Amino acid sequence: MAKIVRVELLMVDLKPKVKRVDAIQSFVSQETPMVRITDADGVVGTGYSYTIGTGGPSVMALLERTLGPAIIGRDAYDIEAIWRDLLFLTHATTVGALTAIAMAAIDTALWDLKCRKLGLPLHKLAGGAQASIPLYTTEGGWLHIEQPALVEDALRAKADGFGGCKLKIGRPIHEDVARIAAVREAVGPGFEIFTDANQAFAVDEAIRRARAYEPLDIGWLEEPLPADDISGHVRLSEQTSLPIAVGESLYSVSHFREYLQRHAASIIQVDVGRIGGITPWLKVAHMAEAFNISVCPHFLMELHVSLCAAVPNARWVEYIPQLDSLTTTGMTIEQGRAIPSDAPGLGIAWNFEAIDRLAVEGSRITLQ
């Protein structure tokens, strides 16, 4: 047994490389809480999570005052026990986004530490199901981008070997249809076009739009309704042939269970940074497998590539690069497919000099 002897905290505020606008918001910042856990043998595990511009300081306060102190002296291998104890410790604020984001930073650090001690990459330790995962890109499909640029980006992605692209929707319905149709005409059949409403619609509008999108052969309709409207998703799923994708705004394994049991979604987009870490991510992925449903996680491609490779029912990794300024090498891509790293750990080559340089002033805390 090697007890946890030190927990280091900091936060980096990353600005998107491109303008990102969807139907409800503009993505202007990625607050990135980071945790480094050291055990008595001197092995260090690094974990992280994220917000999209708000709540980062609250996450850091929860890590500093509650979660971090609670793991000092614990056996770093007891990942499941630690996760459950932290969940109980924060029972007054769960299920909730800030708690899940904070727990994800600790849980991913513990998995990184365990992988490093055992000399194994995450994708092998967590399952070892696939050697590579197809990629689709979101970076050229934001809602503010005009139709010619959408087409150009989709054609470029296809030429680069990507299997699909995502288009944000939420303009007047005739504009959405025209934009999707233009991309479909340009790329032809066999290249997936996914759509994402970012929870913008009420159920009646979602049904109307789904029927308008159906002839365009889209791969899925993502977050058409507010995530807590499970009944609305049931109704929509019964009214359309389009696959309905949900998950990035769910923060509990139990919420995913209810969606699956009620046949309210046919694509699961569980996000490791929002579900509370790798420990619950794997539970959701295997639960979806039991329902014969694919996992196509939201964002965090640098970490999700290894988790997708660990399970048999992962179908896509979403290409949105965001960690380049914090890493020494990026995710490996071959012929439009993401390849998980075989290095021990999460598979992310952190540049700690850059991380220290870019850390938000006042965010550094060491607990021991």
UniProtKB/TrEMBL annotation:
Q: Which domain of life is it from?
A: Bacteria
Q: Which cofactor does it need?
A: Mg(2+)
Pfam short name (any one): MR_MLE_C
Residues in the signal sequence: none
| Listed GO biological process terms | carbohydrate catabolic process
- PANTHER family in the cross-refs: ENOLASE SUPERFAMILY, MANDELATE RACEMASE, MITOCHONDRIAL ENOLASE SUPERFAMILY MEMBER 1
Q: What is this protein called?
A: Mandelate racemase/muconate lactonizing enzyme family protein
Organism of derivation: Devosia litorisediminis
